[in-house]
Amino acid sequence: MKKLTSLIFLICFFLFLPVNGQPEQGKLFLGAASTFNLNMDNSDLFNMSFTTPTGGTNYSITGTSQLLSVPYALYARMADTAPENQNLNDVLTQNNSAGNKNIINLADPINDQDAVTKAYIDAILSRIEAIELVNFGFTDSRDGNHYDAVKIGNQTWMADNLKYLPSVNGPGTGSTSVPFYYVYGYNGTVVNEAKASGVYHAYGVLYNWPAAMAGSTSSNNNPSGVQGVCPVGWHLPSGNEWSELMTYLGGELIAGGKLKESGTIHWNSPNAAATNETGFTALPGGLRGESGTFLDIGGYGYWWTCTAYDAVDARSLNLRLDNGLLDTDLDTKSVGFSVRCLKDN
Prior knowledge:
Blueprint: H1 2-16, E1 25-30, E2 34-39, E3 46-51, E4 60-66, H2 70-74, H3 88-92, H4 112-136, E5 138-139, E6 146-147, E7 149-152, E8 155-158, E9 181-182, H5 191-195, H6 198-203, E10 206-207, H7 209-213, E11 234-235, H8 239-248, H9 252-259, E12 287-288, E13 294-295, E14 300-308, E15 313-320, E16 327-332, E17 342-343
């Protein structure tokens, strides 16, 4: 019985495999003296059962049964002849009924129920993406820098100062119209040298207003609609967007303390009123001053808005070591400030 079972397994295994890559025909060898030619065309594929009463090489056919599933495997290679694009008419020509239904583009639904369903799914996906962003942060594809993010009210902010640095200059070079990028304490023009600085990794880059805007025009809208120097999907916040943050946190007199990193690792003492309860982790990155020097690291942090006041000045925000105030100001566009980006809606 073992011999019969093994032989049938061998035959079945052979029938399912092509010979020399060709499914049309093959040969089955039974012992040293007997050879059977098998015709493996489109219609007559069979499984044959054999017995050997003596256990030698003399076999007798005891039965046959047509193989039903083999053609699908053998002729799968012909699938490349099928049309690559099909429409409803193509389907109907195959004698199938569409049941008076239409093919629906769910990405652009015209049916009210489909539109409601799509809106619901889109809302869920948006919430999932927002949760992932706050939990895991994101990476700027331009340079590989990773940023944490924090949701405050209805806004999602970067929890780090921007580090994007396409070029660099020393503090003695400035302009109200030409973009310039600075790393506090670095007086050179080699980007990799500037990026090797511990100050760069802790506090990020200082941008004059043209660099922060990256060619965009002024806006005080909410949302601003100004990507500026920010990564794709983020934008440079307007004065009104900073005002929304300030209002949500209880007003300018106390909002700063809720934004500042607590302790004195980066802030100089006394770092008054700092709780960082928002997770914003505002740092005192100082500035590149109008006089062409770096100033105030450890004591003050300054951030640009995308809102110009006039041809020379633009609106900015600042925090300081001795109180919890979030102060608004006007500064000349030539100075270098930090940038915090805001997530697009």
